[in-house]
Write a structure and sequence with these properties.
3 strands, alpha+beta, elongated, 72 residues, Dodecin subunit-like
Length: 72
């Protein structure tokens, strides 16, 4: 039996939404080996003095959890 776990993460970048998404996926794959999908659920920006200072991408990701239960 396979179990799939879903978690949420926010990727950030000073450059762009695409870079923020790439940063999130890179970190997710570094932490979890069996990533099966990533869903973008929102985009936000931080603004200071009328300028965009940070792009944020909120994602949910899924990964196979069965190995974690067996210590592999």
């Amino acid at each position: 039996m396979a179990l799939i776990k879903v978690k949420e993460l926010i990727g950030t970048s000073e450059k762009s939404f695409e870079d923020a998404l790439n940063q999130a996926v890179k970190e997710i794959c570094k932490q979890k080996q069996k990533v099966s999908g990533v869903k973008v659920i929102g985009y936000t920006i931080e603004v200071k003095d009328g300028k965009i200072t940070e792009h944020k991408v909120n994602v949910k990701y899924a990964y196979r959890w069965e190995e974690a239960l067996h210590g592999k």
